[in-house]
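This protein record is not my work; I was only asked to verify it. Take the sequence as given and treat only the tokens as open to question. I have pasted the whole thing underneath without changing anything:
***
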Amino acid sequence: MLNLLIVVPIILSFIIIADTLICMDSLASVYKSQGRFKDAEKLFKFCLEKRSIKLGDYHPLTLQTVEHLGTVYQSLKMFDVAEPLLIKTLECRRLKFGNDSSDTLMSIKTLAMFYEDKGMLEKAGEYYDEGYQLTKLHLGTHHSLTLSTQSGYSSFLYSRGRLPHAEEICEECLGNKINALGIENPSTITSLKNLAVIYRAQGKLQMAKDKYKECMQMAEDKLGKEDAVVKLLTNQLAVMC
């Protein structure tokens, strides 16, 4: 029988180390959000080294840290350093978890945004399209990652001047958000505004107005005329007119 006086301290020390690394990873993420990229880089590198030793290179937390470090280098415009880290994360997640894993699908989205940021637009489009197809297939149309992937893909297509395709994706995204989040959700309203911009860019001003009126009526029926969301949509429609 194992000696508990030996085993328990070992287990506790492992738990303490794991908790410490989680806290450090979270702090590094805060630094990144504050634009303190060098501080974030140091903490992420430390966490990556320790997690690789304690958990192995394929552990979800290790791969998460690899991806976080890659996005820090992306923010620093160190694309040549960031790219292999982000590719490694996706390849490892595909191998270990498959294409139906939300972690794998997040890596696809991250790489799409990376290549868009780097200016490699054809490659970005390939990843955006793959993520768009796979999130719907494996996560469903109402999953938060599916919705954010659709939003990003639509914006990317709009920036490339591919307006009919952007319109198609944005209309789909708006419908999904209305069903999943409600018309009153800020993300839904953002998609409505984005769709109106796409309509207007194609000279479809009346379609933009009609879509606002449709959503405004939905919000009014659900929330009442005096609700802040209804007033916001009314004001946006007035500016459009």
In short: Residues 35-119 form a domain with the Serine Threonine Protein Phosphatase 5, Tetratricopeptide repeat fold (CATH 1.25.40.10).
